[in-house]
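Re: the 217-residue chain
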Amino acid sequence: MSAQAFRVRYAAYSLDLLLLSPLLALAAWRPALRAVAAHAELQRAAEAAIERAFMEGHFALFSLAAALREDAVFREALATGTAGIAAGVLGALLAAVAVSALWFIGFEASPWQASPGKRAFGLRVVGADGGRVALPRLLLRFLAAAPSWLLLHLGHALVLFRADGRAFHDLVAGTRVEGGHWPRWAGLWLGLQGLAVCALLSWGGWVFLRAVFVLGL
C-alpha cells in the first residue's frame, strides 16, 4: 500500500474522531463527573486527616505518614474514594467504547459500508470477496482494533507493508478497505491537525520550562 493511500485512511479516521468526539463527551460526562466528585471527596478527607495529624503533633514526614496509615477514618475514605474514582473512570471508558462501536459498526453495516469519515474520502469496508460484511464480522473487526490502539497503532501500520492494504483487524475479521480519493479540503484538514500538534507541543514545552525555572529558583 502506498503512503498516499495510508494518508487517506488516516485522514478519514481522524475525521471520524472529530465527528464522534461530541458524542463521546456526552456519553462519558456523567461517569466522569462521578470520578471527579469522588476525587474531590477524597482530597477533602486527606486534608482533614492531615489537619488531625498536625493537631496531634505529627509534623515530620515519616511521622505524618504513619499517622495517616493509622487514621481509620482516612483509611475508609481512601478505600471509598479510590473505588469511586475507579468506577467513574471505568464507566466513562465503557461508555466511550460503546458509542464508538455503535458509530463504526452501525455505519459500516449500513448501505454506505463506511463511517462518515471513510465515506468523505471514498472508502468502503468490504469482505474478502468484495461484498457486504455481516454484523458479527464487523463487531469482530472493531474489537480486533483494540490491540492496535494499545500498541501505538502498530496493527494499523501494517497497511503500509501489505500490498492489499489490510490492517491487523482486517486480517482477523476477513475484511478490507477499498476505494479512496483525496478531496481538495483534505490538505487543509491535515494542516490544521499539524498546527494543533505544534501548539500542544509548544504549550507542553512552555509548562516544562516554567517548572524547571521555578524549581531552579
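The longest helix spans residues 3-55.
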